[in-house]
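Example (one chain per record):
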Amino acid sequence: MTLELQTFELPAHWASPLINGDISGLSIKECRQLDAFEAKMLKKYGSCHAVDCSDEPYFMKYHDASMFGVLACDVLEFTFDVTGQEEQGMYCTHYNPESDQ
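Predicted structure:
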């Protein structure tokens, strides 16, 4: 089996959720944006498993998360293993407005 990798320029603040599964620093809006990205990855590649990211962020107006409503920000290059794995699941939980009450 050959390892298939895909690289994306994504918001630097997504590093902790994508690499470590820790969403504690994300707002509800950011969590929804990350969920949308992960859903697209699952649909297109069958997995959403980040295996690495670059060390130095750089600013970009247009990046691979722009289509999910993420504005210009510092980004990192994230490398994903897209070797036809089974669904990994989402890191973010879907927002429930009733839980705020």
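Caption: The chain has one domain: 5-96.
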